[in-house]
Structure formats: C-alpha cells, structure tokens
Amino acid sequence: MEVIPLGPLGRAVRFVALAGGLAFTLVPVLWVASLALRPAGAVTFPVSLLPPSLTLENLRTILFTDLGIGPRPYLNAAFYGISCGVITAIISLMGGYALVRYDLAFGRALLLVFLALNFLPAAARLIPLFLLYVQLGLYDTQLGVPGPRRWHAGSCCRWRCRGCSWSRRSPSSTAGTRSRCRSS
Amino acid sequence: MLVLLPYAGALLFSVTDGRLITIGTLPRLVGLSNFEKVVSSTGPEFGLVVAASAVFTLGTLVGSLGLGTLLGLAVTSLRPKLRGPLLALLLVPWIIAGVVVGYTWKLVYDPQIGLANAMLVPLGVGRVAWLLERWPAIAALVVANVWAAYGVVLLVVSSALTNVPQSLILAGQVDGAGTLTIIRRIVLPNIRRAFLLAALVAVVSGLNVFDLIFVMTGGGPTYQTETLALTMYRLTFRRGDIGEGAAVTVMLFCFSLALAIVYVWSWQREARKWR
Q1: pTM here?
Q2: Which of A133, A177, B39, B246 could form a disulfide with B13 if both were Cys (CB 3.0 to 4.6 A apart)?
Q3: Which segments within chain A are labelled E, that is strand?
Q4: Cβ contact (<8 Å) for B4 and A113?
Q5: Could you list the pLDDT tens digit for every one of the 184 residues in chain A?
Q6: B113, A45: Cβ pair inside 8 Å?
C-alpha cells in the first residue's frame, strides 16, 4: 500500500524525481568505472559515458604488475576495518550499557558531550592523537592505524548503544533498578 | 577517559606555544594569545575561512535536506517491493569513503577530461575551470558533498515516513485534501522529529568535511575554499604551530557542543509535545 496516494500528475513528478535522483547518484560512479574499464589512450575530451571498448588492462596493471599497488592496500583495509569494528563494538557496548544501566548523575551531560564529540571533524583529533602516537612510538606503524578511527567512531557508537540499550530495557529490569536491585 | 583524552589534549595545547619542531620539550603557557592570532590572521583572513565554512555547511544542509526529503517522499510512495532495491541504489554514495568521493568528483570536474565540461559541450558552453575560482569551486564542493551526504537524510526521512499513521492520510483524503495538502499538513508535521535529526546530520556533514575538500582543492585556490578543519590542519602540520591549530580545534568543539545542546533541547521540546 502506498504511504501517500498519488494522482497521474503526482506519479509523473515522482518519476522525474526518481530518474533525476538516480542519474545524479549513479552517473559519477558509472563514469569513473567506465574510465577504469576503457583502454589507455581512449580518454580524450569530450569523454563519453560509455567506453568505446572494454578492457581489464588497467585493473591487471594495478593489481598484478610492478607498476601497480598489489594486494597490500586491501589487506591493510581488512585489518583496519575488522580491528576498528571489534574494538569499537566492545568499548562502546560496555560504555553504552553502563550509561543506561546505572542512573549516573552526570550521565546526561556525558551523553551530550559524546554527541558533541561526534559532530567534530575527525581532523580535530589529529593534533593530540598525533602527539600521543609520537610519544607512544605508534606513529607510522601498522599497529597504530585503527586507533584514530576508533576514537572517531567510539563516541557515536556509545551514543547509539545507549539508545539501543534504552529501547531494549525490559520493564522488569527497570522495576528492579528502581527497587535498588544490584546488577549481580 | 579514552574519548575525552584527545580533546583535553587539544584544550591544553590551545593555551601553549607548542610547535612541531620542539615536540619533545614542555611547551610554555601563553594564555589566549593563540585564539587572538587565529582570529586576527590575515593570510587568509579568519572571516574568509568562516564564510567558506558557513556557505559550504549551508549549501550541504539545503541540498541534502531537499534532495533527501524529495527522494524519501518519492521512494516511500512506491510499492514496497520496489523500495528496497531503489534505496540500495540511492545509498551507494553514502557508503563510499570520503577520499574516494573526492577523487571521483575531482575527475568529474577535471577541465581536460571531466564529465561536467563534457556535458556542457552540447549546450554550447565552453570549458569551465571548476576548481580554480572561489565560487565555482565552493559550488562544486557543495554538489560533491550533497552527493555524499544526502543518503543519510534519505534513510532517516524514509524510515520516518513509513511510521506516519495511514489512518491520518486516509482521513485527509476523505476530507478532500490533495496530495500536496496531505504532504504539507499531515506528512511533514508527523516527521518533524526525524527532520530535525536529518537537518542536524546534514549540518554536521557540512561542518565536518575535511577529506573531500582536502582531496579536491586542498583549500585552494589560495585559501579560497579553506574551511575551519583545513585551517587547523594547515596551521598544525604545514606551519608546525600546534598551539594555533589546537585553538581552531577548540573553536570547532565549542560550536559543535552548541549544536548538540540546541538539538537535544529541541528534541526534548518536541518529545514533550507528543506526551
């Protein structure tokens, strides 16, 4: 069932909006993909959206020859992504649970600070983290890579974990807390 | 502690004369002079940076809120079977890393091989140097950032739209309301809270952007597209002045805190209305 019922004119406007939105969204991606898949020397102005012929030569050069980057960046991305996810999930779950489970006097203020921190550009953490990394000897090491991202994602995830824990908090658990029951 | 440590560090460094070349030594306290230097800076003027940040953020807010809401309304008025695949396609830019978005749009705006100029050829318009003048560059950056950021607005708005009570819309129809009246009088007031969140996310995505501008223009031409985040980076890592860079960080933090307070306050006010 449609949320908003539309007449013929409304359907036409919807079609135009969706077609325009899809074109705006997908054309830049498809165009870059078409640049990657066209032969070297076929990139001359005006560059068409569709390549004159398809080739995987550029991808082969990038991945499997000495001129390319090899698989290392992909391994780095996997290490970086997985470690960020795991560390952020563990710390944020603990922090979010504690904030919702215990009615801390400064809990709301702390959540507000977490929210504000989430609004800050990742670049704003660069200075102190850079100095901290230099002091700890983690600067320019693979081990130190997940850290800055974790700092960025942490506050946001803690806020969401708190919201999620709050919505899942059962009435009996709330009643227990109100009756001064201990978590153990 | 873990989260607040970097910010406490930034606050501390903002009142010192810390420099990158003397990183191992203890910096001296200099009070608020770093803030004074940043505000009275002439190369570029601080007002120019604030204006670029404001225009960029406002452009992102208007663009992503408008496009996200329009597409949200269009997608939710489709049959449920079509919604999922269409949403997945429309959310593609949102999942792409900022640096990749930057390089994609840098190619699009390239004066030699760019798609933007190629599209202007049939219209009889000559090649435009999109990223080499202040206002075309800011407009180009706004379009790129709207492309990257409208997905989250679309997601928030379309999920809120599915929760609008169908009975209200049917009642409006029975009373003879047209589609536009239903949208204006029933749908939009019902998604006001989600709209507030979407607006906030759009503001943040405008204010927060660093990687996209860094890749596309690097703040150039001659600081014309430099935002506060880029100023912080330039002062710290190019000029080596940690104190002044940290002062910009603290300013950004205060502004973000003010935004968070306004958001929570208006969210609570809205919540009270619904109780």
Answers
A1: 0.81
A2: B246
A3: none
A4: yes
A5: 566 777 888 889 999 999 999 999 999 999 888 888 988 777 777 777 788 888 898 888 888 888 888 878 888 888 888 888 888 888 888 887 887 777 776 777 777 777 767 766 666 677 777 777 777 777 777 666 666 555 555 555 555 555 555 444 444 444 444 444 444 3
A6: yes
Q: Which of A6, A31, A123 sits opposite B233 (nearest CB)?
A: A123
Chain B contact set for A154 (CB, 8 A): 2-3
Containing structural domain, residue B18: 5-273
ipTM metric: 0.86
The torsion defined by the Cα of B39, B40, B46 and B48, in degrees rounded to 10, comes to 150
Q: What is the pLDDT of residues B61-78, one digit of tens each?
A: 999 999 999 999 999 888
Mean pLDDT of chain A: 74
Half-sphere exposure of B274 (CA within 13 A, CB side): 11
| CB-based contact B65:B202 (threshold 8 Å) | yes
| CATH number, domain with residue B163 | 1.10.3720.10
Per-residue pLDDT at A158 = 52
Cβ atoms of B142 and B205 within 8 Å: the answer is: no
Suggest the residue from B2, B3, B125, B210 to mutate for an interface test with chain A (most A CBs closer than 10 A): B3
- Give the A window 28-57 contacts with B, CB below 8 Å: 28-29, 31-32, 35, 43-49
Q: How far apart are CA B156 and CA B167, in angstroms?
A: 22
Task: Give CA–CA dist B218/A12, Å, rounded.
Answer: 42
- With an 8 Å Cβ cutoff, are A124 and B229 in contact? yes
Set of chain A residues whose Cβ sits within 8 Å of the Cβ of B5? 128, 132
Partner B contacted by A80 (CB < 8 A): no
